[in-house]
Amino acid sequence: MIFADIPKLIPFIDLEDMGLFSCFYDFVFFIYREKGQKSITIQRAVAAWRIVLNGRFRLLDRWCNFVETRPTLSR
After folding, report:
1. What's the rounded Cα separation, in Å, for the pair 58 and 43?
2. Contacts of residue 20, Cβ cutoff 8 Å, sequence gap at least 6
3. DSSP assignment of 35-54
4. Burial class of residue 45 in the structure, from the number of CB atoms within 10 Å of its CB (0-12 exposed, 13-18 middle, 19+ buried)
5. Where is the DCUN1 domain (predicted)?
6. What's the rounded Cα separation, in Å, for the pair 20 and 71?
7. Residue 40 falls in which region: left (phi positive, over 0), alpha (psi -120 to 50) or beta
8. What is the DSSP letter of 34?
9. By the 8 A CB rule, do 68 and 74 touch?
């Protein structure tokens, strides 16, 4: 699956360049969408955030836990 290959792309992208990072972030969320959907599930969003924001967002674990434990967000 392509999901497993996304972390392999990170070393080849200058993620310090905010324009490139934004494009990469959008690409990851586009890939994680289910066919025909405009948005993604909480589970897929958390998986994508853990890949893309790892080492960039110090509150990543707290954010993911917050999102996963909010019943109104998980519907």
Report:
1. 20
2. 13, 14
3. TT-SS--HHHHHHHHHHHST
4. middle
5. 1-75
6. 33
7. beta
8. P
9. yes
Are 74 and 66 within 8 A, CB to CB? no
Residue 31, C-beta contacts closer than 8 angstroms, at least 6 positions apart: 2, 3, 6
Amino acid 20 reads L
Q: Which two tokens stand for residue 48?
A: 């994508």
Tens of pLDDT, residues 23-70: 888 888 888 888 888 888 888 889 888 988 888 889 999 999 999 998
Neighbour count for residue 32 (Cβ, 10 Å): 20
Give first-to-last CA distance, the chain, whole Å.
26
Distance, C-alpha 9 to centroid of its chain: 13
Kindly report whether the global pTM for this prediction surpasses the value 0.85.
no
